[in-house]
Amino acid sequence: MALLLLRRAISGAAVVFGVLTLMFFLLRLAPGDPARLLVGPAATEEQVAAQRQALGLDRPLAAQYAAWLGRFGQGDWGTSIATGRPVARTLAEAWPATVSLVGVSLVLSYLIGIAVGVLQAMRGGRLDTALSVATVTLFALPGYWLGLMLVMVFTYQTRMLPAFGSAGFDSDFLTGWERVADRLRHLALPLATLTLIGIGGTARYVRGAMLDVAGAPFVAIARAKGLSSTTVALRHVLRNALIPVVTLLGLSLPALFSGAVFIEAIFAWPGVGRVLVNGVAARDYPVIMAATAVSAALVVAGNLLAEALVGLVDPRVRGGTRRGGGG
Amino acid sequence: MTRGLWSDRRAAFGIAVLAIAAIVALGAPLVAADPIAQGDIVATRFLPPLSSDATGAFHLLGTDRFGRDVWARLVYGARISLGVGSLAVLVSVLVGVAVGAAAGFWQGWPSTLLLGLTDFALALPRVVLLLLLASLWQPSAGLVILVLGLTGWMTIARLVHGEVRALAVRPFVESAVGLGASDLRVLVRHLLPNAMTPVIVAAALGLGNAIMLEAGLSFLGLGVQPPTPSWGNLIASGRDTLVNAPWVAAAPGVALVLVVVAATLLGDAVRDRLDPSLAVRRAG
User: Fold this and answer.
1) Band of the pLDDT at B284, cuts 50, 70, 90?
2) What average pLDDT does the segment A166-183 reach?
3) Which one-letter DSSP state was computed for residue B225?
4) What tens digit of pLDDT does each residue of B225-283 get?
5) Residue A79, strand partner residues
6) SS3 B47
7) Which residues from chain B sit within 8 angstroms of residue A291, using beta carbons?
8) B256 and A156: CB-CB below 8 Å?
9) Cα–chain-centroid distance for residue A122?
10) Of B167, B151, B26, nearest to B91 (Cα)?
C-alpha cells in the first residue's frame, strides 16, 4: 500500500510538472504582452522594450523556461507583475480559504449525498422518484447561477446573510464568539452553493452503486439469514457500495475545485480561484503560474488522499492485489 | 429501441425538452423579436414579465436594463449555447473515439503512449485550462468550442479503448481478419460500430456539461461577447440588476437547468436501456 501511494505521489508530481510546463509555453505563445499592459497605453516603444528586458521577456524561450524552472523549484515564485507583491505570499494567504471552503463542502455534500442515496435505494417507490428529480436538478444547477439566486433571496430580499468576502469590514474589532459568528455568516452562502451542487452528483452515484451491489449473491444470503433490511442495507450493501464512491471522491476533486473558481468569483471569496481569475485578467504571468501550480497540486493531493481512503475502506487494495484508482 | 425509449419517462422528457429547445433556437426569428433592438430605453427598461410597453409590444419575460426583450435574448442565446455545446461534444467524440480506438487496437507502445496522454489530460484542472486559453486568445464561439472539445475527450477515449480491446478478441473480428480485411477496415467497419453505445451515453452527459461550462466562461466574460446573447452572458448581465429586475438572471438559468436535466436524464435512460443487466437488477 505504501509503495502504491509512493508511486502515485511520483506520478502526481509528474502531472503537476507537466501542467506547469504546458502553461509556461501556452502563456508565452499567446498574444498579449504583460510589459505593454504594465507600462500602459501611453508608453513609447522604447519604454515597452525596456520593461520587456527588465522582466526577462526578451530572451529565448528555452532560456526563459530554464531560468523560471530553476527559480520556481527553489521556491522563488517571483513578484506579481500587476501588484508588485511576492506571489508566494499572495498564494500562502489564499490557499487556506479555498481548502476550507472546498473541504467543508466536500464533507457535507458526501455525508448528505450518501444519506439521500441510501434512503432512495432502500425505500424506492414515490420517495425515490421525488428525490431523483431533486438530485438531478441539483446536479444540473450551474454553481454561479445558484449562487446568484441565493444572494438574491438571502442577501437582497431577506437581508439575512452577507454575500461578499470571508469576513466583515469590522471583523478586526470583533472578539471571541462574535468573530466566529461573523466568519460563519460569510461562509454560509458560498458553502451552501457548493454543497448543494455536490449533493446531487453524490446521491445519484451512491443510489446507483447501492442498487448494483444489492443484486450480488452475498446480499441474498444476508437476507436469507434473516437480517433486518436496515442491517443488510447499512452493513452489507453500503459498505461495498462505498468503495466506488470513495474513488469518485478523488475523481470529483478537479470538478469541485473548478466549481470553487466560479463560486469564489461570485462571492469575492479570497481563495486561489479568485487569485487565478484576477491574474488571468491582468495577464500576470507569475501569479497565473503559481496559482495553476497550487490548484494542480491540491487536486493531485486530494487524489492521493482518496487513494489512501480506498485502501482503508477496501482491504483487498491494501494487499496490492487490485490496482486502485481506475474509473 | 426508439419505441422502448419513449416508454421511459426520463427519455421522453429529455427528448421532448431538447427537441423543443432546438426547434425554438432554430426558428428564433419566428418566435421572438430582435434581441439587440432597443426602443425608448427609459420607457421600456425593467418591465416585469408578462407586461406590455407603450408601443403595445408584449414582453413574455420582461425587459433588461437597456429595454431589450428578455425572451428574445433567451431564444437567440439558445442558438449560441446549444450550438457551442453540441459542436464541442462533437469535437470531444471525434478526438476521444480516435484516441481510444487507436489505443485499443494497436497494442504496445502506441497504446501506452495514448493512454498516458489520456491520463495526463484527465488530471489537468479543466477550468483552469479553460480560463487560461479563453483569456489568452480573443474570446469567440469558435475558440470556446475548440477548448471545450479538447478538454472533454478523455472519458470517451477510455470507454472506447475498453470496448475495442474487449471486442478485438471476439470471433467475428478474427474471422474478418481471416478473410483478409485490412487493419483500418476491421477497426472502422467491425470494431467501432460495436463500441459506440457507451459513447452515445457519454456524449449525452457531456452535452449538459459543455453547455454549463460555455455559460460559465461567458459568465466570467471569457466566452461569447455581448451584445451577442449567450445564456452565460445573459446570467452575467442580470447579476448587476438582481435587486430591481431578478427575472433577467433567473430566466436563462432556468432554461439552462432544464436543458442540462434533459440531457442527463436522456443519458441515464439510454444507458439503462443499452445495459439490460443493469436495468433488470434495478427493476428487481
Assistant:
1) very low
2) 75
3) P
4) 777 888 888 888 888 887 788 888 888 889 999 999 998 888 888 877 776 554 444 44
5) A86
6) coil
7) 128
8) no
9) 31
10) B151
The x, y and z cell numbers of residue A283, run together, are 495577464
CA A160 to chain centre: 27
Using the structure block, give the residue that is written with the C-alpha cell 427575472.
B247
pTM across the whole model: 0.80
DSSP string, A159-197: --S--SSSS-TTGGG--HHHHHHHHHHHHHHHHHHHHHH
Q: B130, B132, B148: best mutation site toward chain A, by most A Cβ within 10 Å?
A: B132
A294 near B CB under 8 A = no
Q: Please enumerate in sequence order all residues whose Cβ is within 8 A of that of A202, keeping only pairs 6 or more positions apart, or say none.
A: A109, A110, A112, A113, A114, A117, A245, A248
- Give the phi and the psi of residue B63 in degrees, each rounded to 5: -130, 160
Residue A46 identity (one-letter amino acid): E
Q: Write the pLDDT tens digit of every residue in B30-49.
A: 766 776 666 666 666 777 77
3-state secondary structure of A77: coil
Q: Tally Cβ neighbours within 10 Å of residue B72.
A: 23
Least confident stretch, A182-191, A289-298, B54-63: B54-63
The C-alpha cell 423543443 sits at B20
What lies within 8 Å, CB to CB, of A293 at 6+ separation is A16, A19, A20, A72
- Please name the residues between 6 and 65 in chain A that touch chain B, using a CB distance below 8 Å: 12, 15, 18-19, 22-23, 26-27, 30-32
Q: What are phi and psi of B253, to 5 degrees?
A: -65, -45
Minimum mean pLDDT range among A105-114, A248-257, B11-20, B95-104: A248-257
Please write down the long-range contacts of A249-253, taking CB distance under 8 Å and 24 or more positions apart. A249/A106, A249/A110, A249/A306, A249/A309, A250/A302, A250/A303, A250/A305, A250/A306, A250/A307, A250/A309, A250/A310, A250/A325, A251/A303, A251/A306, A251/A327, A252/A198, A252/A201, A253/A106, A253/A298, A253/A299, A253/A302, A253/A303, A253/A306
